[in-house]
C-alpha cells in the first residue's frame, strides 16, 4: 500500500501522558504511531525501552512503528516483539550483521525495517530489500526531535528505483513539516514521520490542534 501514511513521533509528545497522546493523534487521523527508542550509546540521547512500549501498546489501535536507535539490537528483539511492536526498525549502522538482525525481527513475528543515517548511501541497503518491509531514510542525524531537515530527495528516489515492485515502504524521519514533506513524497516516500510538526501545536487536551497539523502535512 503506497498511499501516504502519517506517523506522529511520540518523542515530541507528553512523556507523562503517552496513552492520551496516542489516542488523540489517532482520533485525528494518524495512520501509524512512531516510537523512538534511544540507548545513549548508538545515539547521544536516552528515551525509553520495551517496558514503556508495552505500556503504550493498549492505547494504539493502529500500527506501532518502533524505531530502534540502539546497538546492539539482537538481544532486545524478543522484548520489543513481546511489547507489541508491529514494525521493528534497526539501523544499518548498528552492527556488522544487519542481515541477521532483520531475519531475527521477522522470526519474532514483526515486520522488519532498516534505517539509514543521513551519511549512509542508499547502496548500503541494496542487498537487504528482499528481507525488509520498510526502509527508513533519516533526514536528521538521529538522537533528538526538532532538528533541521536535511534534503535527501535523490537518495529517496534512488531507493524507490532500487525497491522496484517489492512491497517495501519508504519512510522519512526527521524535520518533516508542511514545507519539507512534499519533496519527500515526490521522490517516492509513502510514510512521513513527524514529531514536532504534529505535537507542537497542542497537548492531549487539544486534539484538534494535532489534527490540523497532521492534515496540513
Ligand atoms: C530522531 C527521531 C525522529 C524524531 C522526529 O532521532 O528518530 O523520529 O522524533 O522528530 P521531528 O519530526 O521533530 O524531527
Ligand atoms: Zn524515529
Overview of the structural elements:
Helix content is 30%, strand content 20%. The chain contains 8 helices and 8 strands, in the order βαβαβαβαββαβαβαα. It has an 8-stranded parallel beta sheet. The protein is globular and about 45 Å long. The two termini are 19 Å apart. The structure holds D-xylitol-5-phosphate (DX5) and zinc ion. Substrate binds at residues 9, 67, 143-146, 173-175, 195-196. This is Ribulose-phosphate 3-epimerase. One of its GO terms (molecular function) is D-ribulose-phosphate 3-epimerase activity.
Give the count of helical stretches.
Answer: 8
- Main-sheet strand order equals 1-8-7-6-5-4-3-2
Write out the CATH superfamily name. Answer: Aldolase class I
Task: Provide the succession of SSEs.
Answer: EHEHEHEHEEHEHEHH
CATH architecture: Alpha-Beta Barrel
Beginning-to-end CA distance, first to last residue: 19 Å
Bound molecules: D-xylitol-5-phosphate, zinc ion
Average per-residue pLDDT, rounded, comes to 95
Assembly level: single chain
- Morphology call: globular
Rg over CA atoms, rounded to whole Å, is 16 Å
Outline the low-pLDDT stretches: none
- What can be said about the biggest beta sheet? 8 strands, parallel
Q: Strand content of the residues, in percent?
A: 15-25%
Q: In terms of structural class, how would the helical and strand content be classed?
A: alpha/beta
What's the domain count?
1
Number of strands: 8
Q: What share of residues is helical?
A: 25-40%
User: Looking at CATH, which topology would you report?
Assistant: TIM Barrel
CATH class: Alpha Beta
Amino acid at each position: 500500500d503506497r498511499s501516504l501514511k502519517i506517523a506522529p513521533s511520540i518523542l515530541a509528545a507528553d512523556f507523562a501522558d503517552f496513552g492520551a497522546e496516542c489516542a488523540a493523534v489517532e482520533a485525528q487521523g494518524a495512520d501509524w504511531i512512531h516510537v523512538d527508542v534511544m540507548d545513549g550509546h548508538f545515539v547521544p540521547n536516552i528515551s525509553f525501552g520495551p517496558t514503556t512500549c508495552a505500556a503504550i501498546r493498549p492505547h494504539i489501535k493502529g500500527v506501532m512503528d518502533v524505531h530502534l536507535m540502539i546497538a546492539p539490537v539482537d538481544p532486545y528483539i524478543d522484548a520489543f516483539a513481546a511489547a507489541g511492536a508491529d514494525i521493528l526498525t534497526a539501523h544499518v549502522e548498528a552492527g556488522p550483521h544487519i542481515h541477521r538482525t532483520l531475519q531475527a525481527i521477522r522470526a519474532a513475528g514483526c515486520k522488519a525495517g532498516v534505517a539509514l543515517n543521513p551519511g549512509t548511501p542508499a547502496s548500503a541497503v541494496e542487498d537487504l530489500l528482499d528481507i525488509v518491509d520498510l526502509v527508513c531514510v533519516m533526514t536528521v542525524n538521529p538522537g533528538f526531535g526538532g532538528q533541521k531537515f536535511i534534503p535527501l530527495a535523490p537518495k529517496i528516489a534512488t531507493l524507490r528505483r532500487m525497491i522496484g515492485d517489492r512491497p517495501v515502504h519508504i519512510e522519512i524521519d526527521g524535520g518533516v513539516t508542511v514545507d519539507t514533506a512534499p519533496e519527500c513524497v515526490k521522490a517516492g516516500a509513502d510514510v512521513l514521520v513527524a514529531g514536532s510538526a504534529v505535537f507542537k501545536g497542542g497537548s492531549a487536551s487539544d486534539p484538534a490542534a494535532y489534527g490540523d497539523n497532521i492534515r496540513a502535512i
